[in-house]
Amino acid sequence: MSQKILRAAVILSALFVAACSTPNPTTSATSLSNADARIQLVHDARQAMNSLYASTPHAKELANQSVGVLIFPGILKAGLLVGGSGGNGVLFSNDGNVLGYYKVRALSYGLQAGAQDFSEAMFLMTPGAKQYLESSDGWSVGLGPSVVLADKGMAKDFSTTTARSDVYAFVFGETGLMAGLGVQGQKITKLKE
User: Fold this and answer.
1) In the predicted model, is pLDDT for residue 22 greater than 70?
2) What is the pLDDT of residues 52-66, one digit of tens each?
3) Which of 23, 58, 76, 110 could cross-link to 28 by cystine, CB 3.0-4.6 Å?
């Protein structure tokens, strides 16, 4: 591939990712008060959590054993050679209280094209994992606590007695068309109050 074609593909990819990553103006913090946006985010996160529990009953058992559950109800992933993803989420205690608000961002490069929206739940199983999330200046997944991506096959055989990792992540509710979901390369940062 010539350098001009490669540069054009990278520029078009960046524009595509930027266009797909722009928040919906009807629900962004600029059109709603910060409090209203947070209320909507908590509502969306609880709906996503209930959807996960309905499709994966073991996730509810895992939540009961966790020290916190971080839910991102709508992560948008888009790309054309260069890709990106992002969304906002809520950290809940295992009894359902809101502990904080977070954003997740990721960049990727490779043979990819398309756009997809999905939800992600991260079950923090140890006090150390929760403390790392709350005290670090942004958690880059892959550094810090160990994360296991729980797929549908694992979720069927999964029980709280076999849970041995710091964090279990579930990706669910996918819409759109894009190959390769995962949590690698994500950076999670606490939102300012």
Assistant:
1) no
2) 999 988 889 889 999
3) 23
- Pair of tokens at residue 140: 């880059």
In contact, 68 and 128? CB cutoff 8 Å? no
The CA distance from 91 to 97, in Å, is 8
* Domains of the chain by residue range: 3-190
Are 69 and 94 contacting, i.e. CB atoms less than 8 angstroms apart?
yes
The residue to which tokens 């979720």 are assigned: 155
Distances (CA, A) of 165 to 1, 147, 148, 160: 43, 7, 7, 11
Q: Output the six-digit token pair for 36.
A: 């209203």
- HSE, side-chain direction, 13 A CA sphere, residue 17: 22
User: How far is it, in rounded angstroms, from Cα 193 to Cα 187?
Assistant: 19
Question: pTM of the prediction?
Answer: 0.75
Q: What is the pLDDT of residue 166?
A: 87
149 sits in which H/E element: strand 147-149
180 secondary structure, DSSP code: -
